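Late entry, written up from scratch paper. The run itself happened at the end of the previous shift, but nothing got recorded in the book at the time, so transcribing now.
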Amino acid sequence: MPRVYIKTYGCQMNERDSEQVAQDLTARGYTLTSDERQADVILINTCSVRDQAEQKALGKMGMMRNLKRDRPDLILGFLGCMAQSRGAELLERLPDVDLVVGTQKYHRVADYVEDLRAQFTSAAAAAPVVDTAEETGSQSTIRDHLNSGPAPATAYVSIMQGCDMFCTYCIVPYTRGRERSRTISDILSEVRGLVERGTREVTLLGQIVNLYGRHEFPVVNGKSPFVQLLYELEKVDGLERIRFTSPHPAGLKDDLIGAYTELSKLCEHMHLPLQSGNNRILRAMHRSYTRELYLKKVERLRAARPDIALTTDIIVGFPTETDAEFQDTVQLVREVAFDNCFVFRYSERKDTPAAGMQGQLSDEEKEHRNQVLLAEVNRIAHAKNQQLLGRTVQILVEGPSKTTEERYMGRTRQNKIVVFPGGERHRGKLLDVRIQHSSGFTLYGDPAIFD
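Output as recorded:
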């Protein structure tokens, strides 16, 4: 029985895409392995958002080539965003690679792997496969989940592909294509199937998730297609929680804010990317909102759901950003008091408008600003977690802790990680846990709760 090893870099959408590939291959008799040395097929699903992610993927594949020297029939493949943007160029750099598949062709991977294995078996010289073409309907091909055993307590559900926003720093519209959305009925069918197998929480995925369906479906009774979807998911029996990521501030309208007051399953958490707290930099980024508008959206969200947790993405060191403009971002972070921020140093991406801008900052200055902002983020998060000490929170138990199998972990509705001394009997259950202490961004439950 052939074995496949899949390594994924990047966002939750990449994780979901890898799961689809894994399911397609296991349905054909392949087994998954966590040891690349035991694999017959090695697939690396790549990210292009930052240079560091690309370099990691290239470095990993470079190491895999050593395995192929001893096993010429080993299949090596690149998938995803870097595969889409670089295409055949990857074969020139790494000639041992057999397969390069772009973001609209994940559902073709199993066919290509089978064809390559057949060529190797026949002792023919296997021709490398490069497929980065667009494909109509590809947004509806990421719909299957690994079906060996019960479904996980939480699951990602891809509801759309692509992006039409064209932020000047971002390569995603070029690697993921234009916005394309699945139908509500198709998404509901997927979610119901997951719930029947034991899933209690779904996270809806889209590059700009709150713009779901705007090109395909009408507004109904003042509700956008995305909000219509949320209301339909609220009706799914057995589903306990709904999350989504990531929305765009400019698309955050009254209907979505209102949903937080009406939908009991919609979790009190929103990841709302900011990118910068300075208006000139926001314009240069082509972000289509101001700091004032962003703050107004935050105010209205908190008025609708006072206990909502807010997280965000921020880029430091964008071309021409002055120290004073960076301080605008630091001040906005203090004002909003985010529960967490993912801070990124600006990374020059090939063929994006920002890559050609004058005033590129040094790596040293970007790293300095990164550390300054991270210190502020950590200070705020620590203070927020301290406020939870002694309180009882509800968590959905996902499974063993990543650091030790003797403890289990779950998330609050505000998406905070809680580790507690549990066992397999707790997986998939909603539990009330009293918070005893915190470390970094992790909370720890009081074992007395189980006495």
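Residues 345 and 363 are 8 Å apart (CA to CA).
(Scratch paper discarded after transcription.)
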